[in-house]
Every structure is written in C-alpha cells, then in structure tokens.
Amino acid sequence: MAGNQRFVAGTPEHPNQDAARRTETAPSQQPFAVLFGCSDSRLAAEIIFDRGLGDLFVVRTAGHVQGPEVLGSIEYGVSVLGAPLVVVLGHDACGAVAATRAAVEDGATAGGYVRDVIERITPSVLAARAAGHTEDEYFIAEHIRHTVDLLLDRSRVLAQAAEAGRAAVVGLSYRLADGTARLVTARGLEVPAGLAS
Prior knowledge:
The protein is of the alpha/beta class. The chain has one domain: Carbonic anhydrase (Beta-carbonic Anhydrase, Chain A, 3-Layer(aba) Sandwich), CATH 3.40.1050.10. Helices cover 45% and strands 17% of the residues. Mean pLDDT is 94; it is low at 193-197.
C-alpha cells in the first residue's frame, strides 16, 4: 500500500528495477506477494504498487476469474515460493463485470470463451443485485469479495495457510482515474488501522 501511495503521489521509487536486482533474482525468486488481478491493460501491478523484479508473483485473467490453472499458480506462489500474501485486485470500469451485468439484465450474450468469463462472474452480479445495489462500485466490490471467498473455498492449500497464519488473502479495488487501491476484504490477518480506508 505504501508503494501505491507513492504511485498516486507521483513520487515512485522504482525499487528493484536495476541490473543488480536482475542478477540477484536470476537464480531464484522469493516474492512477498501473489497478485491475482484483472488482465486490464490499465493496471500493471508492478507499476501501480511501485515494485520491481522478484517482488510480486502476478497472475491475471479477465475479470479475475479462476480455473485450475489460476488456482495452481496461486498455490505455487504461496506453497513453493513462500509468499505470505495473496492480493485479489479488481478495478472500476471493469469490462468483464459490465458485460456480465448486461448479460444478466438484458440477456446479452457473448460468444466463444468470453461467455465462460461472464458465467464465472454471474454469481457476483446476482449477489450485488439481490442486495439492492445498482452502482458499479458495489458490483466490483462484491466480485472481489466473491473471488477471495472462492480462492479459500476451492484451495485447501490457501485455506490451510490462512488458518495457520502463514498467509493472508486480501481483496483490493483500484480506481483508474486517481490510481488508488483500497481494501475491500481481508481473510487470514488482522488489518492494521491505516490500511482499512
């Protein structure tokens, strides 16, 4: 979050982005976080969190939907690489969530595998609608919470790591216009007072 604050303020430090770091990380990696986010081209994790080589183990899919490959990649980051933090990163103006809302509300469908993405986001949209929400931010937040819950429900590795205090899973929502990331949900850790904003 400190890196995100530097990014927002326009004072990035660009840590771990030099030749020495490249040489240091060439033999192995020890990222401090796994970041599972949306594939959107406007939120590159290392940039918006002001990080560098070897810091983040990044997994991205449209609408941060998950299948076996995603779960395996995240489990690898936690169980093999030892990352103690998994971050689910959603964002406003998400095209995958908007397409799902259109499919639910208007019956608009997509072809190919885009339909699979929409089907995986549908439970989040339905839950937000059932709660009476109509604004984009609530649909995004619900989908982030749903993704965090699914990760812990589907992955015994992640659930056990969280229960044992070896890892935490948090959900953040990124605002494209101002670059801020805010906490939506956290599982497996006590949230420091300054983080919950």
